[in-house]
Amino acid sequence: MRAVADLIDAINGRVGRTVAWLTLAMVLVQMGVVIGRYVFGIGSIKVQESITYMHAFVFMLAAAWTLRADGHVRVDILYREAAPRHKALVNLFGSIFFVIPISALIIWYSWNYVGQSWAVLERSHESSGLPLVFVLKTVIPVFAVQMGLQAVSMAIHSLLALGGDEDELAQLRHVTEVAEL
Asked: How many Å apart are CA 43 and CA 41, to the nearest integer?
């Protein structure tokens, strides 16, 4: 089981770290747009739309990596100070009853939406915009698959912690230490 969880963590980690570089690209491209517009009086709809695409890719494709790193906002009134076994139970329950079902619903409801976009190779509404709206929409089910898989990984890690695995329990203790920094 640990090998499956580690594989999911590794894949989502690699994807997350890769798309995180798009944040630098977004800043540089946005800076170029501002300089181009206000210094040289030129602009490009494709370049402006590329910023939106990069933002969507970062937000959607790095979400599972952020989940693994416990970086999402959490109302942790009880969680932060809880014992590692209690945290494992919360993570297990949240993965099984919230993240996995919601991920499945997102896949279910986005499937036709994305399929219709691919069927017509949907383009930007702007005549000089990017002709890749179908690619942008594809990120929706990819996001859901990544989140669902990361929830499976979290469930496995939680089960290992509940079974007494010291490495997993130490990881849950570390979450509290990081939160206090």
From this structure: 7
41: left (phi over 0), alpha (psi -120 to 50) or beta: left
Could you tell me the pTM of the whole model? 0.89
Quickly tell me which residue has 């698959």 as its tokens.
Answer: 145
The number of angstroms, rounded, from the C-alpha of 14 to the middle of its chain's C-alpha atoms is 12
- Give SS3 for 17: helix
Burial code of 59-85, b = ≥16 C-beta within 10 A, e = fewer?
Answer: ebbbbbbbbbebeeeeeeeebeebebe
pLDDT tens digits, residue range 113-171?
999 999 999 999 999 999 999 999 999 999 999 999 999 999 999 999 999 988 888 88
CA contacts within 13 A on the Cβ side of 9: 14
